[in-house]
Amino acid sequence: MALLLSLLTVLVVVSCGLSGALGCVLPQNHILLSRDNLVLLRQMRRISTLSCPKDTKDFRLPRAMVKGSQVQEAQAILVLHRMLQHISDLLLTEHASAAWNTTLLNQLRMGLYQQLEDLEPCLVRGMGEEGTALPSQEPTLAVRRYFQSISLYLEKKQYSDCAWEVVRVEIMKCFSSIITLQERLSNMDRDLQTP
Predict the structure, then answer these.
(1) What is the reported pLDDT for 191?
(2) Does pLDDT of 127 surpass 50?
(3) Residues 6+ positions from 168 with CB-CB distance below 8 Å
(4) This prediction's pTM
């Protein structure tokens, strides 16, 4: 139910648009949750990617959208939410449950859920802004294509242990980019609060 609500909120935000200066401050623990999730992902390692040479794949994480100036502040919140939502959706599958330690996977899911919940007020605040221009769809489309390629890869590899290991490493790269984006948003918030 919460995931459905999150998805509906994102759809409304996309259709209504976000403002250029949301003035939305992420909770201080948001970056810490991402770092904790990264630690959990490291602990979930079951096999070495070296034992899976035929399964390696470059999913081409669209890093420019989180590191560069391509994404404006309003879009950054939406991109962050989309990335976390796609990771969560990927990890909520039966195949993910079969691939990894259930305790660690559930802790990771809970961390993702908390982060998505923390972003809801920012998305709602963006929806409330009147006269806003619709943000460019390019960054969110790039995120969607990226996660679609991961899902198709898993399906093609029949959700093998090696495929899940490759995806685990890719999600770790994703979280590194998410942390960069969170830090960028945090810096934007600080700049807005400075007189």
Answers:
(1) 61
(2) yes
(3) 41, 44, 45, 100
(4) 0.79
